[in-house]
Write a structure and sequence with these properties.
mainly alpha, 126 residues, cell membrane, Protein translocase subunit SecE, elongated, membrane
């Protein structure tokens, strides 16, 4: 198998940006724990602010730009999907629930049958 499709961070500036983004996330987590006396809303805001700042830092790097490009292409692909109608969704959900019920009943009967054979016939415990 070829590893030619694996892309790594090659630029020192990109590495520094990604390391800084990780440090900012860790700082947000530590800040959330460190300022325990603050109101919860402020602590959550501090944590979310750290995540947003880290995302902005990471997205200025080349891997971040590739990630944004991939997300945009994925969103365009999702728009082209033909989604099932409500009726089709309900029918398939019914089929899945029916299958789960039948399989559950089958496994329960198999378990009880094996229990009867092993404990009742072979070992004589019941």
């Amino acid at each position: 198998m070829s590893n030619s499709s694996i892309e790594t961070v090659t630029s020192s500036a990109d590495r520094a940006k990604l390391v800084l983004a990780v440090v900012v996330v860790i700082a947000g987590i530590v800040g959330f724990s460190w300022f325990g006396q603050w109101p919860t809303v402020a602590r959550v805001g501090l944590f979310i602010g750290g995540l947003v700042l880290a995302a902005l830092i990471a997205w200025t790097s080349e891997p971040g730009k590739r990630t944004l490009s991939f997300a945009g292409a994925s969103y365009n692909e999702v728009k082209r999907v033909t989604w099932p109608t409500r009726k089709e969704t309900m029918q398939m959900t019914g089929v899945v629930f029916g299958f789960v019920f039948v399989m559950g009943a089958f496994l329960w009967l198999l378990d009880k049958g094996l229990e009867w054979v092993i404990y009742g016939l072979l070992l004589g415990w019941k």
